[in-house]
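To: structure desk
From: M.T.
Subject: fold request, one chain
Message: Could you run this one when you get a chance? Sequence is below, nothing fancy, just the single chain.
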Amino acid sequence: MKFGAQVTVYRNTWDTVREVAELLDAGPWDSIWYADHYLPPPGIKEEEHLAAQEAFTVAAATASITKNLKIGHLVLGNTYRNPALAAKMAGTLDHISHGRFVLGIGAAWFKREHEAYGWTFPSMKERQDRLEEAVELIRALFRSGEPVDFQGEYYRLDSAPLSPGSYGDPIPILIGGTGEKRTLRTLARHGDVMNLDGWARGPMTREYFQHKVSVVNRHCEDAGRDPGEIRHTVLMPTFVTNDEAAAERFIAARGLGEGTAAGPKSYVVDRIGEMIDAGAHEIMIGGIPTHHLDHYQLVAEEIIPAFD
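Reply: Done. Structure tokens follow.
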């Protein structure tokens, strides 16, 4: 079983992020993940001046100081970068890491940072249209080996090479979001990794996970694709504590949904085990502040070994 951690890049410094990355790389962890925003979410006006470190830069720095961890984003916002530029950056990062990069991408949702930086924030339909077109283009660049021509409504390529491209096998594409009509269809057509996002306030239960997987499988059938080609992952906010009130505060402060893994060790192990039994291939632990290295160590020593 694989375990990763989503590490915060807001309201902190690169030095604190580096300490976590080095700790994870030396431990039983398989992957590290960063979000992608230009203002600290969720969008409190008084906090806009606080640090929000650029996601690709942090990932590249992480690649240079680690040897073992897969590195990715949960998730890049498609509207922030031309997708061909994102593919170029991904290819370079995959070479820096010697094949350890996963490109995670979604439609983007944070309207305020678009306003702050002068970017257009399209309608939900257009953002979904753009995402599907972008992922198709990126997949073509990752897998072609030859210059790519692409003529879409929003993006175009004219005999564009990707060099450096993937370091070895094609860079996997993780699609963020669980919208059943569009996002999961885009995943089924062009993605490699599904992620159930515990921050999205959905019920983190076996039934919810398996329902979303069944939707992906139906879209795969419609697209003529083998659903076995898609890995299933879960980002699970986690807080190991024997203090019931503290667990309740963790859940309430973040507006989290049913089944969040906050509570005693036995409860956290049961919650994670439920998602593994449901078919998850990887669990990403979220919600640990970067300055709490002891909490990462606690998960490494008390939770992950339960699934050896």
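Reply (cont.): The first helix runs from residue 14 to 25. Let me know if you need anything else for the meeting.
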